[in-house]
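Intended use. Records such as the IclR family transcriptional regulator entry shown here are meant for training and evaluating sequence-to-structure methods. They are not intended to support clinical decisions.
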Amino acid sequence: MDKKYWVPALEKSNLVLQAISEQPSSLKLIDLSKRLGINKSSMFSLLATMEALDWVVREDDATYSLGSKLGYIGNAFFKQFSLIDRFRKEASVTKHVIKETIQLAKLERNEVLYLAKEEMPSPVRLSSEPGIKYPAHATALGKAMLAWVAEPELGTLYASETLDPCLTPHTLQKRSDLVRQLEDVRTSGYAFDLQEAVMGFCCVAAPVRSGDGKVVAAISCSMFQHEWEAKRELARHEICALAERLSQYQTTT
C-alpha cells in the first residue's frame, strides 16, 4: 500500500491489539508503552478509545484483555466461511435437480463479489469465478441484495439516473427502472437477469439472510436463454428453497 494514505494511529492500534492478544490480562499501560515504543500519553488515548469501542477491556488490576466487539467481528469473519462451506454442501445437491451451475455472492457497494460456485459440466464455462466482480444492477444476484439496501444508501450508490456500465443491450440503463425492479424483488423474494449481464444467459437469484434478517449474500442459477422457459419455474423454486435453507443455517449458527 502507498504510505501516502497510511494512518499511523491505526497501525499503532493494531500493534496494541496484537500485544494484548498474545498476553491477555498481563500488560498494563506502562508495559505496552515500553514494549511498543509509544509514549504514555498517546498510549493512554489509544487505550481509552479502544475501551470505549469495546475493542479492549481494562481489568481491575489495570491490565488489558480483548473486548467483546473483537469477538463479534471475529465471529462474523468465520461465519462467512461457514456459509461458503454450507453452500457447497447444499448447492451440490440442488445443482443436480436443476442441472445448472449455482453461484454464491455478496454485495460490495454497487458490485457483486462472487464467493463460490457449484458447477455442472458444460461446454461453456461461466466467467463468474470466485473473486470476480460484476456491476450489481446488471445481475440477478445484485438485484436480490440491492432490494434490501436502505433508500438513502441506494441513492448514494446510484447518484446518477444513468446506470453504468451497460454490459449488453438488455442491461438496465436507468436508475428509475432499477428502483422499480427492486420493488418487485422485495414483493416476490427473488430477482431475474434476462441477458442483462451476458448475452445468451438468463438467471434467477434469491437473498440469504442472517439471524437478524439482514441480507448477507445471495445465490443464483444461470442457464442458456433457450433453456430458460422450460426451466424457469423449477430454477426459481429450487433457488428460493436453497436460499431459505442457507438462511435458516445462518440463524442457528
